[in-house]
Amino acid sequence: MTDDTAPLWNVREDVDLSELERAWGESKLSEVLAATLNSYNRLGRVNAGTAAYNLGVSTGTIRRWVRDGVPAARRGDVISLVRPPQGAFTQERTDHLNARWALTKIAGEPANAEGLWGYKGWLKPHDLAIIAIEDMPVHTIRLSATDRSKDSNRRLTAGGKIVSIVTFPNYFAAVRARAEILEDVYAFRVQLRNTHLASGAGKAWLADAPHKPLASYRKKPRKHVRPLPGNTDKEVTR
Predict the structure, then answer these.
(1) Each residue of 50-62: pLDDT tens digit?
(2) What's the rounded Cα separation, in Å, for the pair 132 and 140?
(3) Strands 160-168 and 126-133
């Protein structure tokens, strides 16, 4: 347990264990560990030696956890290894709320919005892309201006390939959609390590996570921001 002076990014995720258990099922732990550590054996499952080293246990223990599940006393350690920290989810929710507030201002006070964000190019169309990471059963999501340079386009696809891309009317609409997707794949999120990704390591999820088609997030944005796990407060709008 941390005190109030602990850095936000060191705070363990306040995760809903039952939600993770449903998502991971009986056979997902090996895939989650392998994706997080980018370490696979010949069968495409987790390299038990790498996982054992990172968790301070034996390879036999890793194989037993994969087969029988992680004991309750060690779940926190596994979650801290494979999941983004609480600070990442807190920041994403803040970004979501701020984007919704900005979109309200753009619609109701266009001149004011132009003064605030026009010079940054944030009122111009932006693309949101789901990227399949090369040689990994993992997707991530990236955002870029629609009118982008060749270098920006290379950064958009770095480390993988585009599986879906949709243009949004402005930066904030794309941020809102990104936040909604990350909410929908919450239980399938992984924190990638030992990768050469330019970006997206903290916004990754298992590729088979269920979510709506990307275009649906543009056509039918959500009316509310979901609370974080463990937070029963209603949405606070700006």
Answers:
(1) 999 999 999 999 9
(2) 7
(3) antiparallel
Closest CA to 51 of 34, 68, 31, 28: 34
**Could you give the C-alpha distances from 232 to 21, 68, 116, 229, 236, in angstroms and in order?**
21, 32, 33, 8, 12
Q: Would you give the distance in Å from CA 24 to the centre of its chain?
A: 16
E strand intervals along 96-208: 126-133, 138-145, 160-168, 189-190, 204-206
Q: Is the overall model pTM greater than 0.70, yes or no?
A: yes
* Beta pairing partners, 164: 130
Q: Under 8 Å CB-to-CB from 2, ≥6 apart: which residues? A: 10, 11
The answer to whether 19 touches 233, Cβ cutoff 8 Å, is: no
